[in-house]
Write a structure and sequence with these properties.
The chain starts with a helix and ends with a helix. The chain is globular. The chain is mainly alpha-helical and 97 residues long.
């Protein structure tokens, strides 16, 4: 986690997928969200395969925020989405438009 933060990498968090694939049993107790925030790790909340998991990004954000309201306020959620855009492979001229 420290190495990713040191290299200013971004971790994509897909809550529904994490539970469905068995990566974690419970979003409330098992998700490392607090560790991500405390370590300064950039992360984005994403969806994983809309056709399989049937969740939009908005639903994933709401889901994770409902389990972690103390860590995911409006400011933090906005920052995660800004970090996702800034970490994307989009060219600067596209980002500025």
């Amino acid at each position: 986690m420290r190495q990713v933060a040191a290299y200013q990498g971004l971790v994509e968090v897909c809550p529904t997928s994490n539970v469905w694939t068995g990566e974690m049993a419970c979003l409330k107790n098992d998700h490392p969200l607090e560790k991500f925030i405390n370590s300064g790790l950039k992360f984005s909340i994403c969806t994983d395969d809309l056709l399989i998991f049937d969740k939009t990004v908005s639903e994933e954000i709401y889901l994770l925020a409902s389990y972690h309201p103390e860590h995911l306020n409006k400011k933090t959620i906005l920052q995660t989405q800004i970090d996702a855009i800034n970490s994307s492979f989009l060219k600067d001229e596209v980002l500025k438009s």
